[in-house]
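Study this one:
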Amino acid sequence: MTSLRLALIDNRPLFRKGICSEIHGHFRKAEIVELDNTIALIASAGKFDPEVIIVGSETGELQVPLKTIELIRRHFRQARIIVLDEMFHAGAFRGYLQAGAHGYLSKSCDTINIVDCLKTIQKGNRYVSTDVLNLLLGRPQFNSYFDIKEVKLTEKQAEIASYLVSGMAVKAISNRLNRSQSTVSTVKATILKKLGVSNVIELKEILSKNPTDD
């Protein structure tokens, strides 16, 4: 568990409360400032220095306006930005990335995805929620941002992936295949990187919709 300084923009207090509750449960020290709109965030410049800014709905729009992200980038150049859209739109998504957003989530994602996103971008990586990732698979125009592409796993990788999504631990898989744990761990890391996911839960979701079998 780590510390976090976060600004959360969304005009729905109950929605913000749910996100804050999830975050506090996973970070040792979380300093969160809740705001209704971007204007309030800009007004706080110099008083609060967030390392991450989550930008959600201010007026009920389906997509966060691109100009909002550009405005935040001008005032908080060091902060990492996460866009939390009501509904995914490929064109808007690409615009956010080009404007400097570090993470992208849709409102249909689980709150735990928000925690995963925060931890990922704190490490300097980009993040996109699993539901959006599934929509982007096979769209090569996004490869340069998230390494999202259709891939083929080798026979051994597919076998280990099937064990992973069935709930088997690395140690159990190594015993089953008579391989060292380090070898299985390396193959696991390769599988996750190939498919552009960060954990077994996301791997399971992707393989359920994009089976590796021919």
The longest strand covers residues 3-9. The beta strands are 3-9, 29-35, 52-55, 80-85, 103-106, 127-128. The chain is about 50% helix and 15% strand. The domain at 3-146 is CATH 3.40.50.2300 (Rossmann fold).
